[in-house]
Amino acid sequence: SPHMIRILFNSVNDPPTVDLSGPGDSDGNADVQYIEDGPQVQLTSASGAVVSDADNTTLDHILISKPAIGRVVANSLLPPFVLNTLNSTHRQLSAAAGSSVTLADFSMALDSLRFEVAEEEIRPLSVLSVQVGVSAYDGIAYSGIATSTVNFIRVNDPPQLRLSPQAQFSANLSERAASTIESPISSLSSAIDPDSGVFSLSLALHIRSDGFDEYLLLPSPAFPVVTINTSSALLLTIENLSLNETAWLLDRVRYVNKAPEPSVGEHEVTVVLSDGNSNSTASAGLYITALNDNAPQFVYTAPFATSVMENAVPDSLYTFRATDGDTNMIPTLTFALVSGSAQFALDPITGVLSMNNSLDAETSQAVVLTVEVSDSLLSTRENFTVNVIDVNDNAPEFDDTADYTVNVTESIPIGQLLFRAQTSDADVDPANQHIEYALTAPPSHAPFFRLDSTNGTVHLAMALDYDKQFRQLEFILTARNPGSLLSAQQAVRMYVADVDDNCPSFGPLVDVVDVLENVTGGTAVVQISSVDADASLHFKMPSFGLDQQPSSPALFRIMSGMGSLVVVDTLDREALPRVLLNVTLTDSDANANCPILSRLITVNILDVNDNSPSVSAVPQAMQEEQ
């Protein structure tokens, strides 16, 4: 006979897949190019990433490995996605909790990620590319790792000649004898090539002079003595130098004075450094003047200071002026900032002091700069003060460590202090620190609060009632600088606690209770109720009692918190057919304002047939009748 076979299929979770190269590419990996010094690049191919999952419509997160150099950034990442650092090797791309996203949304989020790298990170020629691994997680399993390979495309950077801060050199030849003076070339502090230190360099020195003087290259083991005849403006070219050799040679050129008297005038040296593809040029000048025996002096009307509004747009601030007592020459005076703030720059020729950035009075109300004026040999230094004038550019701030919840009882009196604002203003001018306060609250809450706008204190303006009114109120306090739009707001929430301020009263009461005499001990024969307007249950708890005559037997007791009248001893109607009980009621918390109430209850003990009949002796008269 035929048999039926049932085949059951168990669902197995298939891991998701990530394809960084988009449709049509089998391996799922992407190759992108990053041009040195160029903009950020997309980690996925131009056709976009494809994230898929045969079992699910969304993902838990995507795991992204950190590249060996450079970084993955999320400047263009759209909400609700976030890119968080998971550990030292990986970052996690996920959607904010509670958001609804699809696999397509995760694909677009991957497309929005960018790669960037600083130039100095890829400067070594050995660094050709980096890889970024991407793996999707559906809550159960990770996909295979798709790789985005970032290939670096290099551009040639020209070599650089770095000048010391003062690229001009002044010399005073007080004697009329031949002398050797350090060349302005030595003020060139270094020569570098951003691409590498292994390219062959060609160094060219162009020297122009007045025909009387020479430049001398000091002897060394590697290079012979070379005399450069400036009268013919000879071009000296030395090739195949390393960077270190270039800097070393520049430091060994000297100016030689052979004139019968000091050679007054300008001598210029131009240095061209080439790496075979591009050049870098720097110039330095040698100025020879007559005897200089007077230091220049600043010219100003005391105090030596100026003022500027904080947050002023960076601009020229002050122009220094100076004179030199040497009247037999026309000195070239230069100015310099010897010490002070990096926020300032001083033009060495014009003496114009300018700001690099806006100043902040909250950081410093006065900046003292040491400025120098020099005639290339003698100099004078003085302290110059920049006074920073405060403007109202800081909004008041509420203390973020303060408690902004207020807990009170409903019994506090009107006028009670509820809250005191704790605020500050970073501005330094007292006029800019002045704060006024305003209070806003829901219409039903506002009548309970009275604000002192000058000091931010809030007092109770209307009596509270936990049982009939609000148990939680709130208001918003605004701190504002008068005449300014700068302000801050802080929400304050007040919780009202119940107090035992209502007395209990008897509920509906039965004055007469009938009880069979054979009820057992522990039986509740009547329930006495009470009413209390307090809202809290523990304040509603009554305290019942029984006020019995001392001579009466204790046949009943009442449960204090419940009001149940309970039999405690055997009842006997033949002995006691009726019991009068005085029930008392007061507040369980012993509220001193509550009286002790009482009610009289009559308990009728009903007879039951609990006695056997008995026969007594027959009277004599009855016997005679019989």
What does this structure look like?
The protein is mostly beta strands. Helix content is 5%, strand content 41%. It has a six-stranded mixed β-sheet with strand order 2-11-10-5-8-7, covered by helices on one side. Strands 13-22-21-16-19 form a five-stranded mixed β-sheet. It is elongated, with a radius of gyration of 50 Å. The relative contact order is 0.07. About 4% of the residues have low confidence.
Write the layout of secondary structure elements.
Blueprint: E1 17-19, E2 30-35, E3 41-42, E4 50-52, E5 61-65, E6 71-73, E7 81-85, E8 90-95, H1 103-112, E9 114-116, E10 129-137, E11 146-153, E12 160-163, E13 168-172, E14 179-182, E15 188-192, E16 201-208, E17 214-217, E18 226-229, E19 235-241, H2 243-250, E20 253-257, E21 265-274, E22 279-289, E23 297-298, E24 305-309, E25 316-319, E26 322-323, E27 334-339, E28 344-346, E29 352-355, E30 366-374, E31 379-389, E32 397-398, E33 405-409, E34 417-420, E35 423-424, H3 430-433, E36 436-440, E37 449-452, E38 457-460, E39 472-480, E40 487-497, E41 505-506, E42 512-516, E43 524-527, E44 530-531, H4 537-540, E45 542-547, E46 556-558, E47 564-567, E48 578-587, E49 597-606, H5 620-625
Parallel strand pairs: 2-11, 13-22, 24-31, 33-40, 42-49
Antiparallel strand pairs: 1-4, 3-9, 5-8, 5-10, 6-9, 7-8, 10-11, 12-15, 14-20, 16-19, 16-21, 17-18, 17-20, 21-22, 23-26, 25-29, 27-30, 28-29, 30-31, 32-35, 34-38, 36-39, 37-38, 39-40, 41-44, 43-47, 45-48, 46-47, 48-49
